[in-house]
Amino acid sequence: MADKRVKMIASKSQDLNAWYTDVCTKAGLMDYASAKGFIIYRPDGYAIWEEVMNYLNRRFKEVGVRNVYLPTLIPMSLLKKEMENFEGFAPECAVVTKGGDKTLAEPMVVRPTSECLFSDYYKDIVHSINDLPIKDNQWCSVVRWEKTTRPFLRGAEFLWQEGHTLHADKNEARAFALSILRIYDELGRDVLALPFVTGSKPSSEKFAGAEETFTIEGLMPDGQALQCGTSHFLGQGFPKAFGIRYTDHNNQLAYPYYTSWGVSTRLLGALIMVHGDDNGLVLPPRVAPIQAVIIPIRADENPEVLKAAKELEANLSKAGVRVSLDDSNKTPGWKFSQYEMKGVPLRIEIGPKDLAKGEAVLTRRFDESKSVLPLSSLPAQVPVLLDEIHAGMYKKAYDYLKSHIYTCTSKEEIDTVLKEHKGFVRMMASDTPEEEAFFKKEYAATPRVLPFDETPFGDKDPVNGEKADKVLYFARAY
Amino acid sequence: MADKRVKMIASKSQDLNAWYTDVCTKAGLMDYASAKGFIIYRPDGYAIWEEVMNYLNRRFKEVGVRNVYLPTLIPMSLLKKEMENFEGFAPECAVVTKGGDKTLAEPMVVRPTSECLFSDYYKDIVHSINDLPIKDNQWCSVVRWEKTTRPFLRGAEFLWQEGHTLHADKNEARAFALSILRIYDELGRDVLALPFVTGSKPSSEKFAGAEETFTIEGLMPDGQALQCGTSHFLGQGFPKAFGIRYTDHNNQLAYPYYTSWGVSTRLLGALIMVHGDDNGLVLPPRVAPIQAVIIPIRADENPEVLKAAKELEANLSKAGVRVSLDDSNKTPGWKFSQYEMKGVPLRIEIGPKDLAKGEAVLTRRFDESKSVLPLSSLPAQVPVLLDEIHAGMYKKAYDYLKSHIYTCTSKEEIDTVLKEHKGFVRMMASDTPEEEAFFKKEYAATPRVLPFDETPFGDKDPVNGEKADKVLYFARAY
What we know:
The structure is a homodimer. By secondary structure, the first copy, chain A, is of the alpha+beta class. Chain A folds into 3 domains: 16-275, Bira Bifunctional Protein, Domain 2 (BirA Bifunctional Protein, domain 2), CATH 3.30.930.10; 292-385, Rossmann fold; 405-475, C-terminal domain of ProRS (Translation Initiation Factor IF3, 2-Layer Sandwich), CATH 3.30.110.30. Chain A has 13 helices and 23 strands. In chain A, the strands form 5 sheets. An 11-stranded mixed beta sheet of chain A has the order 3-7-8-14-11-10-9-22-23-21-20. In chain A, strands 16-15-17-18-19 form a 5-stranded mixed beta sheet, with helices on both faces. In chain A, a hairpin with a 2-residue loop joins strand 5 (94-99) and strand 6. In chain A, helix 2 packs across helix 5 (170-192) and helix 3 (76-85) packs across helix 4. The first copy, chain A, is globular. Chains A and B meet through strand 2, helix 2, strand 3, strand 4 and strand 5 of A and strand 2, helix 2, strand 3, strand 4 and strand 5 of B.
């Protein structure tokens, strides 16, 4: 093969957008489908999503959630019922008007989300208090008519999970929605190495029909916020609109409390943007399809190098490491670039000199730090190193997030932050529609989150001068 | 709670259809969606499918297959290209004509299968021999416009996997399609306890565009065949139609060879029909969401019974058994019926007398055989018992299949079999369109499979008297 370096990509700091699409395509995560707005999840991209699925399936199971599957298509009348009952719910949908060669009496939409479908189902299966709680989850894709494509971040179709639960007790329902948000936050911390600000959505940003929407908000390298997952406490709105009732302990008819919650492949977008660098993708070890790549050096003249590399591959694999040996005839330089682009967390080189000393050279993708270790120690050491890499990546991202939260107590400070620093503005807020309008007009920004567990640091909103008892983060957002 | 038995279901032998839908709904596997043709996969139904997914993901990975995801919607022009190139491909589709509130310039269909979408993608990513082989698989749902619903067997939407591979070498491609069929056959044998007849589809029953279609055919209790999975060797048809080409070792442009293959939730239908009985569902242990249920007897007066039951639950769970303890206040009789209906493979009763002897009573769902075993032996014995149950269920189904294959060497014999016995007619065949027309007209039956590895037992087709060198099974079919 030609000894050429992997094709260059745009600079992350100079052109984030170009860099982002370069990485998505050149790291082999996705491809554009020929239909506008749609993408193809290639094996290395889908594998990351599968690790998210594995983690969440395990966590959901622990809290009694089971998987189900409801239809892809929703009768228009069901969606309309939701739109009429919940102001602000007006998804742009793909509409099926023909089945076979016949025009349908009632059009159907490709699911944009499934609350109305679950509600229609629950009304038939919920009868008594003994049927509660119900805790369902569905892995599927959703379609929202959207012609701009930013891979994983915005597009006509994405993959997600949508959870739906019903509870007899209001507090139990709200607490459950919160417990799911904690799972999402831990998915970030423990799997994706992504830190989030967690809290409630300001009233203007809640899901239509929600009493409270809880959110995990990430911060991207351009200082823009990205909503990475939400959990809604929906109260009794859907049960009342769709007639879901049960006989309670006192033999009275009652409406249950509803929660719904979801994360999507948008998380892949966050992961790419937060961790990647000018050499390409940087994957956190726990979702990397290949965690360590072994590259033999000058193996053609030194057959014992390849032998040692194969032995190491077998030993690491036995130790539970997702390892790959690249013994192709490409140059080491080409391979280095290639696996950097693909974001493989750890590179292990073995050359004749290393082998003579019984050693290998290990290079961590995320900070390029090198170490030389005895070959025999690697099956024990590599899993430790991968955990260190995860911790290091999380810390780096966490430090970035924390250092881009700016506490502001005056309009002037807000102006300065949004012009000079970019990131979250942290302020005392009144959370009113007027305030929201001001943010949008003045800064093209939105109120993102009322964070959990923060102590008020004043009692006046610096934007409108009104009384304020809530801490609010706002920012420009994706 | 009221001490009533679980609602009765129809008799399997007297009314298979009514029995089947009774079991599907009353065992909690599915529910009907309000849109005609669509069903809801409830947790106990979806869990079976998840076990199928787990097994196949593991097996596919062993042969180098990776998961991908391509769009739900296919531009009409792509589907038309397939229809124009491959005679007989004319799926009834759900057609999207509107996006948001605008009429689309080009309608799109909800995927009925994705060969044209994969081909359109492959033409962009396949360039050189180094890009081959490609081995992709997709888990998704497909929609085919169909108003009759027989849960899992027929309907507007089902869940499936569809594999798509490209190979430079023709023999490699054909062998790969065959190796996938072997995996499907082993899924039946080792996971679902379902025996199949394996072989090639007769020419009239091949997938449009396929050079060869390999199939696993099951036999249902009414003597009708059910196609349970297919693997297609597609030759170069799709690459030629869609322009997928690569530069080979001699720097010449060449077309790769294509295979595609799939199994669907139809397998759940086969499993229900083959194993179920008049008391409801009978689940093979390896897909059962609950493998063993513990039912304490007279625990209200004997607190030590509940204590022992809980201890047993913990120990079985530690031994890797999916176990559930039902300590609700329903009567043992109600519980027995309930878990019989749900098909739980093993029931474990502990009462005060058993406990005094340090024993429990175990009842196997599929053959109702009982054994009394020391409590302390159960963590070791239950996994063994579950394997025995699996083997017993497979043998029972295998014996049924084998005893319903009738070798016929004359028209009279064929008549007799289809009138009196029901099952597969095994005969020497010429595999011609005329023969197929005759089967359809005379017996409302179709040629199902040219089985692998069977020795010809004559040289003349008893139907049309023509020269015949192939063994053929034909039957009425779902």
